[in-house]
Design brief:
InterPro entries: ATP-grasp. With 315 residues, the protein is an alpha+beta fold. The chain is 26% helix and 24% strand.
């Protein structure tokens, strides 16, 4: 009888969610012993109980103090975008061309287009992302960036710009071990100047005039059920087999219809079902992420399947 330990973060996930998932697992897979631990505590009682049987730990986000004596651990952690892109390519996942900006970088517009995205290799919430003329992309020493710019602490990347339409938009597909819990579509506030084509940045005053980043507070979110987008998000999870919970940002080229994965939130801070950010997003936009696909039911099934595959058990 294997153990499954779910590591809980009260600031990011409702304990009621985890209790309901545990209840569903116990009802459907009584051979699995489910426990819920606090990520910031040592939880010695749980550790000692877990030591008696094969154990799998699932922590959606990085743990602080909780550790087990033995067992398989699946845990969210930050990964640089460059590492994500290499993994996507190895897994056959479509990702826009990219390269690290180094002192001798010189990008050819005939390949990259007239404009490219420049972004930090390691940053959150779209920090440091700008659009630049391809011919003007140059290496910038870390110390030349502002003190709070992510470029002071990680390399900068150039990536092909994917034109998603007059207003920047993208999909976020959130998966648990490759199963979609929920999916949303995000579009930039239409009070901004529209971008009429992929090369129409001239006179737009950069990102401020025609946004290329769509996940702003003023953006409009709707539930997404595009089968191709969801399938791509589930495929993308295979590039990160050690990470349980992922949020994949996917775009569709408005001219060609091609889909690309821009990046994945590998830290696992994407439990929008009950986080403060997620509750606000659902309330503001008038939808229910729990009900979209049956998120907690899917989470329970995904965890049951993972434990059974890990330890060779069955119903």
């Amino acid at each position: 009888m294997p153990n499954l330990i779910l590591v809980h973060w009260p600031e990011r996930q409702s304990l009621d969610d985890f209790r309901e998932i545990a209840r569903l697992i116990r009802a459907r897979a009584p051979e699995i012993g489910v426990m819920i631990a606090k990520g910031k505590e040592r939880e010695l009682g749980i550790v000692l109980r877990a030591a008696l049987r094969p154990t799998m730990v699932v922590s959606m986000m990085p743990r602080k103090r909780f550790r087990v004596l033995h067992g398989r651990v699946y845990e969210g952690h930050d990964l640089p975008k460059s590492e994500q892109y290499r993994r996507y390519r190895a897994a056959g996942i479509p990702v826009p061309d990219w390269e690290v900006i180094v002192p001798d970088t010189s990008l050819d517009p005939s390949h990259w287009g007239d404009y490219v995205i420049v972004k930090p290799d390691l940053a959150r919430k779209a920090a440091g992302i700008v659009i630049k003329r391809t011919r003007r992309v140059r290496y910038q020493p870390p110390e030349s960036f502002e003190a709070d710019h992510p470029g002071r602490h990680s390399p900068m990347l150039a990536q092909k710009f994917v034109y998603t339409g007059r207003w920047a938009n993208h999909f976020r597909v959130t998966t648990l071990f490759g199963r979609t819990l929920f999916a949303v579509h995000c579009e930039a506030d239409r009070s901004f100047r529209p971008l009429e084509s992929r090369d129409a940045f001239k006179g737009a005053n950069g990102v401020g005039g025609a946004p290329v980043v769509s996940n702003k507070k003023s953006s409009r979110y709707t539930l997404a059920d595009d089968p191709e987008v969801i399938a791509l998000g589930e495929r993308a999870h295979a590039a990160f087999p050690e990470i349980p919970l992922l949020g994949h940002d996917i775009v569709r080229d408005a001219d060609t219809g091609e889909l690309f994965v821009l990046e994945s939130n590998t830290r696992g801070d994407v439990w929008l079902l009950s986080s403060g950010t997620g509750r606000s997003l659902q309330r503001t936009n008038g939808f229910d992420l729990y009900a979209q696909f049956g998120a907690l039911e899917i989470a329970a099934e995904a965890l049951i399947d993972k434990v059974r595959a890990e330890f060779g058990t069955s119903a």
